[in-house]
Amino acid sequence: MADTMGHSATATRNTSVAIGFCLLAIAPQIFEFIWSIGTIFGWGAGRGPLQVVTGHATALLAGAPSAIFGSFGAGTKKASSDVLLALIYSYPLFAVAILTLFMTIRSAQDYVGGVILMALALFALWASSDLQGMRGFSFGAGTAPRMFGGLLVALSAAIALTGLLTDGPAMAHYSWRGPLFVMVAILFFALAIRPLGLVVTAFVSFMIAALGSHETRWLEAAIVGACLTLGCAILFPYVLGLPMPMFPRFLVQ
Description:
The protein is an all-alpha fold. Helix content is 72%, strand content 0%. It is built from nine helices and no strands. The chain has helices spanning 2-25, 27-40, 49-70, 81-100, 108-127, 143-165, 177-210, 218-239, 249-252. α1 packs antiparallel against α4 (81-100), α3 packs across α4 and α5 packs antiparallel against α6. The chain is globular and about 55 Å long. The chain starts with a helix and ends with a helix. Mean pLDDT is 83; it is low at 1-9. It comes from Bradyrhizobium barranii subsp. apii. InterPro entries: DUF1468 (IPR009936).
């Protein structure tokens, strides 16, 4: 009875971890989709939401498999960025997620941490895939990112393997509130800097990030946000000479 309950609990934990890895495997696609929503309101440049969904779905379901099987034939067509993202980043993490269902995780922190580091390394390899590599003995722009990315893949795989072979601590409780609101603040700043200007965007972004803590004192947060906004308004356009809009577009026009 106890063995059955223990096996059931382990299977449940493995399923949760595998689902998390599947979400991690499509995290860049989800982020681009969220970013593309801003194009509807003119807040950013790039593909629209429908184009993003269609492009990544086609790459995951058809483009990447065609590229894999085509590599065994005579096809030499250069793969698109969406297909390369699926091949280099998403598919390996999907494979890890499937294998996780059949493994006994003895140290969850090491295993999950190793896979997350692996995801960062795979993303770096994809991001540098269109950069020039080595030509003879000369280093190209993509040589160092690929070298460090490959090294990080090996190290992260070793860390994840440690989580399978040695006993260690289980996953500790993790609060998503702080990282969530910080990411929302960064995304808001990126989308709103052009239409709303630096002054409004910087202050609102700081206040959004302040939502990440239960201990925020809003009067103090507003004062600090105003001081940081003033610092940004002096630093970026005047000290660094960056051509950033200062005020909302509708006020300037």
